[in-house]
Every structure is written in structure tokens, then in C-alpha cells.
């Protein structure tokens, strides 16, 4: 099938308040969100849904649907992100979390890793003080205090280098961030990948967090409660990069097998919480224990947290992540204690 995806940038420009606009014309906000992030491929969407989106954006179907365009993945060397919700270079990433779930820590680690790969890191400082914000400010190359200053700093930056830029939801609500992206694109600047955070945690309760995005990272309260970090939900986090045609078939296959395993593991954990291990059917014990090992493996020690954890940070290439996850889901790690997979880099 021809490579198809929604023109998310166009939707951002034309329909900034997509949640209410979609609902007003009879579309389910969750369906629209999943189409924007690629969780639902465009080829599987109902025609009436695509037509309604084109009507909202006041554009033709040819303008709304992009054909044959590649999406490049940014490798973060953070296992759970690269496997389940990769970053689309030049796109927009939304972080959905309550306060104290680790979104600034993961952003700080991400910036640290990408700086080592030659990226320029930039932060539009949010108003107010938040735990972890000071550490992010100390890590980034450029701190700005307004959209106008951000625009100027991007223009001044070396255009041969890619830029990763983070800002708070306050600039999404005003529409300024989308105006900035449009202005940069009009000037032919496409090397900026944007990260949107909501430090107040209000976006968690919205159907379409931040509007149209290329990547969504949902943080998980259950993982936080059990101290499994980074606490990114591997089931609900998603990305346009995962539309199959943008990744090696092996990556897509492993990602889908891992998601299936973790989805069932989470269901079985609910049984255990009520009936303990006796509540799990004998035929499902293997699934439970493999899911337990995979969840443990997806934890990762961060360099930016070394002073708090006392544990050396680790980066893991996507190639190693895929190899390790394949070993776990196929059963090669069945005799390995769960504890030995917690907070490691790659499997030695």
C-alpha cells in the first residue's frame, strides 16, 4: 500500500483547537488523536472521518494526506522511547504526565544524549518554579524567555545542526508555538524538533493532548508507584514513525510482540492484586513472568540522576534494545531472575 499519513503540520495551523472542533462535527477525539500520531493508519480510517478533517482544515484531501514522504527517527538511546514511541525528526512530541512523574528528568536525559550527538538544545523557560526545571536549564545550550527570542535564537543557530527545543503548554494554549513553527517553516527552517510539556499536569485529562502531534509519551502512575522509571506507558505512547513503512520490519515486529505481551501482563497483574498468584491460570504463568521481565528491562538508569540514585547512567542503542527485547519475548531469558534485569543498560 502507498505510504500515507496525515499532514499534521497543516492541521496544527488550520485547527488549533482540534478537540472541540472534532467533537462538534461528530468525530471521536480519541480517533482523531490516534490518526495524528499514526496509531491508526490513514489507510484504515473511515472515509467520512478523513473528509470531515479536510473540511475542518478547509483543505483538499490531497493537501491533508501526504504520500510517499519519509519520516526520520531520532534515536534517543532510551529503551522504552525508541522501541514504543520514537521521535520523528522535525516533528512535535507531547509529554502527558501529572507532576512528579519524571517528565523533566526524561527530557533532561534526552537533551544530554542528543547534545553528545551534535544537536543544539534549547528551552523556552516556563513561568514559575518546578522540581527538576533547574537541572534542565543547566543542561541545555540555550535558554530563552519569549517566543520572539526563541525565533531569533533559532535563526542565529548553525543551520547545519539539528535543534531540539522544549517549551511549556502555556504557549500551546495561546497558539504562539504553532505560529512559531509556521514562521520557521515559511523561512525554510525544518531542523527543529519540538517537545511540549505540561508542568501543571492538566493535559492528562484532555482527549487530544496539545492538538495534532507526531509523537505522544503518556506517563504511567502505576509505574511511578512501583518506582519503575522511566515511567512511560508502553501501550498508550505512540508515534507516526511506527506506521510500519518508516521502520525496519524487524523493529515493527518486535514492538508489536512486546506491546501484546505487556498488555496481557498488565491484565494478569490485576488478577494477582486480587487473588495473588493463584489467580493466574497455569497456561498464563509463562506470559506473566515474561511480561515481568520485559517491564523490568525497560527501566533504565539515567546519567542525570546519578547523584540521586548512586547508579551509573546507561545508554542503549536501538539495535541492542531490539535484540534484548526479542530474547525476552521469545523466552531466552526465562531462567534469568527478574531483579537482574532492573535498571540495567543492555543485557550482557
From TrEMBL:
Record family assignment: Belongs to the ATPase alpha/beta chains family.
Keyword Nucleus belongs to the record: no
Gene3D superfamilies in alphabetical order: Bovine Mitochondrial F1-atpase, Atp Synthase Beta Chain, Chain D, domain 3, P-loop containing nucleotide triphosphate hydrolases
Main location (coarse class): membrane
Designated name of the protein: ATP synthase subunit B
InterPro entries: ATPase_a/bsu_AS (IPR020003), ATPase_alpha/beta_chains (IPR050053), ATPase_F1/V1_b/a_C (IPR024034), P-loop_NTPase (IPR027417)
The organism of origin for this protein: Lederbergia citrisecunda
One CC-aspect GO term: proton-transporting ATP synthase complex
Signal peptide: none
SUPFAM superfamilies: C-terminal domain of alpha and beta subunits of F1 ATP synthase, P-loop containing nucleoside triphosphate hydrolases
Cellular location(s): Membrane
GO molecular function, one term: proton-transporting ATP synthase activity, rotational mechanism
Keywords: ATP synthesis, ATP-binding, CF(1), Ion transport, Membrane, Nucleotide-binding, Translocase, Transport
Amino acid at each position: 500500500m502507498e505510504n500515507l499519513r496525515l499532514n499534521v503540520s497543516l492541521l496544527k495551523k488550520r485547527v488549533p483547537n482540534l478537540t472541540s472542533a472534532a467533537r462538534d462535527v461528530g468525530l471521536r477525539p480519541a480517533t482523531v488523536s490516534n490518526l495524528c500520531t499514526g496509531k491508526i493508519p490513514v489507510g484504515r480510517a473511515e472515509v467520512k472521518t478523513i473528509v470531515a478533517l479536510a473540511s475542518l482544515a478547509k483543505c483538499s484531501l490531497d493537501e491533508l494526506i501526504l504520500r510517499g514522504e519519509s519520516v526520520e527517527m531520532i534515536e534517543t538511546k532510551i529503551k522504552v522511547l525508541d522501541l514504543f514511541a520514537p521521535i520523528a525528526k522535525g516533528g512535535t512530541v507531547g509529554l502527558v504526565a501529572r507532576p512528579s512523574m519524571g517528565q523533566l528528568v526524561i527530557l533532561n536525559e534526552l537533551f544530554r544524549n542528543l547534545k553528545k550527538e551534535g544537536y543544539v538544545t534549547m528551552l523556552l523557560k516556563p513561568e514559575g518554579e518546578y522540581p527538576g526545571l533547574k537541572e534542565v536549564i543547566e543542561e541545555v545550550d540555550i535558554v530563552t524567555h519569549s517566543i520572539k527570542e526563541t525565533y531569533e535564537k533559532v535563526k542565529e543557530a548553525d543551520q547545519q545542526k539539528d535543534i531540539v527545543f522544549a517549551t511549556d503548554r502555556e504557549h500551546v494554549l495561546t497558539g504562539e508555538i504553532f505560529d512559531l513553527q509556521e514562521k520557521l517553516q515559511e523561512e525554510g527552517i525544518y531542523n527543529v524538533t519540538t517537545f511540549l510539556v505540561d508542568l501543571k499536569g492538566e493535559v492528562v485529562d484532555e482527549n487530544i493532548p496539545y492538538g495534532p502531534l507526531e509523537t505522544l509519551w503518556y506517563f504511567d502512575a502505576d509505574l511511578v508507584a512501583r518506582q519503575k522509571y522511566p515511567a512511560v506507558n508502553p501501550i498508550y505512547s505512540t508515534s507516526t514513525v511506527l506506521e510500519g513503512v518508516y521502520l525496519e520490519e524487524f523493529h515493527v515486529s518486535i514492538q508489536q510482540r512486546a506491546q501484546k505481551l505487556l498488555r496481557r501482563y498488565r491484565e494478569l497483574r490485576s488478577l494477582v492484586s486480587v487473588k495473588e498468584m493463584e489467580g493466574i491460570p497455569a497456561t498464563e504463568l509463562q506470559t506473566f513472568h515474561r511480561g515481568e521481565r520485559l517491564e523490568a528491562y525497560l527501566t533504565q538508569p539515567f546519567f542525570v540522576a546519578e547523584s540521586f540514585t548512586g547508579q551509573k547512567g546507561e545508554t542503549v542503542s536501538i539495535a541492542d534494545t531490539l535484540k534484548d527485547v526479542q530474547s525476552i519475548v521469545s523466552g531466552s531469558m526465562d531462567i534469568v531472575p527478574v531483579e537482574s534485569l532492573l535498571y540495567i543498560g543492555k543485557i550482557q
